[in-house]
Amino acid sequence: MIIEDIRKELFDRQDTKYRDFQSKLIPTVDAGSVIGVRTPELRKYAKALLKQGDVNEFLESLPHKYFDENQLHAFILSEIKDYDQCLRCVDEFLPYVDNWATCDQLSPKIFKKHRSELIKKIEEWLRSDRTYTVRFAVGMLMEHFLDEDFDIRYPEMVAKIRSEEYYINMMTAWYFATALAKQYDMILPFIEDHKLDDWTHNKSIQKSIESYRITPEQKEYLKGLKVKKVN
């Protein structure tokens, strides 16, 4: 079975020191499920599997047992060239994404050629009650809709998110920090008018101040917009 072959290949590529290091970075994942395959190796293996053409059995074998299998799954989907197929596979996979690393590695290249269709799916994902589906949606807005396809309604959508989930709020902060770097004049009112919850507001400013893409003058101004007391 291809699933057993893939698992054997992953263990053959195992780096135990990397496994121990990586396990500490993904606290929502059982450390025992981490094999420890480095990201470049996973990317290379994903491309090789796609060239072989027999990955459907693996993609359908959800949920996966190992974190690295989820990572490999994300990298395979990121390389699929047919938009409809890719979108279908992403929808099937998202309910099983249980950590920030897999969520953030999932970045289908084909999406950039189908942004008009993609935005409709993003709006759907934003309404999800699943943490990493929402995080993925915000990540896709950040990746694809802050440059030539920017529209003010997109940050408005993100600003409406209210969640107790750390990994959603952190992605929201990352989104607004990146948006400030790329669309400063359009995004600044979201900070000035305090359209985010206090924690996300301050985290967005913190990330902006840490960015080399924000000018020293902008950083000084943003510092003055921080909320003084946050629980």
Can you walk me through this structure?
Helix content is 65%, strand content 0%. It is an all-alpha fold. The chain folds into 2 domains: 1-111, no CATH class; 114-231, Leucine-rich Repeat Variant. Helix 8 packs antiparallel against helix 9 (131-144), helix 11 crosses helix 12 (184-192) and helix 11 (166-182) crosses helix 13. The protein is globular. The model has no long low-confidence stretch (mean pLDDT 96).
What descriptive keywords fit this protein?
231 residues, 2 domains, Leucine-rich Repeat Variant, 14 helices, mainly alpha
Query: How does CATH name the architecture of the largest domain?
Result: Alpha Horseshoe
The first-level CATH class of the largest domain is given as Mainly Alpha
Secondary structural class: mainly alpha
Q: Could you please say which CATH topology of the largest domain applies here? A: Leucine-rich Repeat Variant
Helix fraction bin: 55-70%
How is this structure best summarized?
The protein is mainly alpha-helical. The protein has helices at residues 2-12, 16-25, 39-52, 56-60, 67-79, 83-93, 100-105, 115-126, 131-144, 153-159, 166-182, 184-192, 198-210, 216-223.
